[in-house]
């Protein structure tokens, strides 16, 4: 399972977001969220039904420790100066 698949499951099934809210949070198209979500659910079902291990991998990510300074818009969670919500981007 990819990190993106894990994230869609977390946002939609655990956090209760709609697919529309999920696509805004992940900054991807709704159709992309739908495809990722469907792929993730199939992998989870296969793991449960067949007694397989579920491995989450793909990419390099850092978990938030709460000490970083994000833009605060509540949507993109990008660092300050990199938020695309307001069309602003600084190279500071």
TrEMBL record:
Transmembrane segments: none annotated. It comes from the Bacteria. This is DUF134 domain-containing protein. Pfam families: DUF134. Belongs to the UPF0251 family. Signal peptide: none annotated. SUPFAM superfamilies: Sigma3 and sigma4 domains of RNA polymerase sigma factors (SSF88659).
